[in-house]
Design a protein that fits this description.
This protein is of the alpha/beta class and 440 residues long. Helix content is 41%, strand content 21%. The protein is globular and about 65 Å long. Pfam families: FAD_binding_3, NAD_binding_8.
Length: 440
């Protein structure tokens, strides 16, 4: 007697939920995604996301080959390695600058600077029969037959064998499943912005900022920069891959519309919340002039080009956010409701680790559900193994991000000097640098 096939309901159509849906559909598992946005184009904003090998491996495994190739073609190359510098643009240590060129299609080594809008369009490709828009989740109920029913604000319901919380940091699914799950607010705030790579800006932007990712350790505060520069012109992509794009049911012009935006340098300035005026949070979104005035004050003594980077950015690209992180959860009794990404292990937006961890979750959960669907492993055992692994690496990543955030915003002169000395020493003593950071 063949095993009963699974029916999976995913709440949330972010990158984790859609990656899971792509993988399950590719494996022949029945899946439906319920997304509260009313249309596929509801989220046409945001900074780009750096997909590291962890995320690349997940996307490569879950996406059809043609979509993976398209993702690589439409992404940018974030540049080799990362630089650690002081506020005067003096290098402390440069990591991974001289490594071999990697094949961008090889997920085990490739990194990709992807447009969030283009990524979402790619993840939605071929899922017209899977994704239901305008479905605001309100709660779930379990039945004695082992199924679970999701309820929505429009009065409809959906019954499945497994319900997956992929609805982000304020997950309603997770709040019902684990009402005691907590979150801590970190004493950090960030302002981010973009400097577009116009001909004028290219003339003054330092080469180091155009080379790749950089971390700046001033005597107070913290700055991160990254370059987002397309690998291939959209017109060339359409000429080379247009037929494959159309074969996927996609309009090449619509898919690549966001990719026609100017390339840019992203910067993120992070500081201790108590270092800012009490009124800053309310002004940050509506008063770009006040934000730039504050940044000019906080960066006094920095290299002029770094000051220009954070004070002369396009006003409507400025974005302010506070930081929070999920509190650790112990292993629970596995049932037919599980989760992935920020719904479980929400973390600050430092280094793009949250998005990459969500993709890793989706990949692992897809494998577990596929094994159960095929009768290779009982569903409870497959989900229990996934959850144990996800909790371990998910909250390890949360701790890493929180630790890095606390180091970035510390107001201890001793700790900041020690960090600068450590990076500078690793840069000056190559064997030590290789031991700590790997190949340089």
């Amino acid at each position: 007697m063949s095993p009963r096939r699974l029916d999976v309901a995913v709440i949330g159509g972010g990158i984790g939920g859609l990656c899971l849906a792509q993988g399950l559909k590719r494996a022949g598992v029945r899946v439906t995604v319920y997304e509260r946005d009313r249309t596929a184009d509801s989220r046409l904003q945001g900074f780009r996301l750096n997909i590291e090998p962890t995320g690349s491996i997940a996307l490569h495994a879950c996406l059809p080959p043609a979509l993976w190739e398209l993702l690589v073609a439409t992404a940018g190359d974030p540049g080799p390695g990362i630089g650690f510098l002081d506020e005067r643009l003096r290098p402390l240590i440069l990591i991974g600058q001289d490594g071999p060129d990697h094949d961008p299609l090889d997920p085990t080594v490739s990194e990709h600077a992807v447009s969030r809008v283009t990524l979402r369009k790619l993840l939605l490709a071929g899922l017209d029969d899977v994704v239901r828009f305008g479905k605001e989740f309100t709660g779930f109920a379990r039945a004695d037959d082992g199924t679970v029913t999701a309820k929505f604000a429009d009065g409809t319901t959906a019954t499945a064998d497994v319900l997956v919380a992929a609805d982000g940091a304020n997950s309603r699914v997770w709040a019902q499943l684990h009402p005691a799950a907590g979150r801590i607010a970190l004493p950090a705030t960030a302002v981010a912005g973009k400097v577009f790579l116009t001909e004028e800006n290219r003339r003054w932007l330092p080469e180091r900022l155009l080379a790749g990712k950089n971390v700046f350790w001033p005597r107070s505060d913290f700055l991160f920069t990254a370059i987002f520069r397309r690998r291939e012109d959209p017109t060339a992509i359409i000429a080379r891959l247009g037929d494959r794009i159309r074969a996927l049911g996609l309009d090449p012009e619509h898919l690549l519309a966001d990719s026609r935006d100017d390339d840019y340098v992203l910067w993120a300035f992070i500081t201790h919340r108590d270092s800012l005026p009490a009124s800053f949070a309310s002004k940050a979104q509506d008063d770009p002039a006040a934000v730039r005035e504050l940044l000019a004050e906080r960066t006094a003594g920095w290299h002029p080009d770094l000051r220009r980077l954070v004070t002369a950015s396009t006003p409507d690209t400025l974005y302010q956010t506070g930081f929070s992180a999920a509190e650790p959860l112990g292993q629970w009794e596995t049932g037919n409701v599980t989760g992935l990404g920020d719904a479980v292990h929400h973390m600050p937006p430092v280094g793009g680790l949250g998005g990459n961890t969500a993709l890793r979750d989706a990949h692992r959960l897809c494998a577990a559900l596929t094994a159960a669907d095929r009768g290779e492993e009982p569903l409870p055992r497959a989900l229990r193994a996934y959850e144990a692994d996800m909790l371990r690496y998910g909250f390890e990543t949360v701790r890493e991000v929180v630790r890095n955030t606390e180091g970035a915003i510390t107001r201890s002169a001793l700790k900041r000097s020690a960090a600068r000395w450590f990076f500078r020493t690793c840069g000056a003593v190559p064997p030590l640098g290789r031991a700590v950071f790997g190949e340089r």
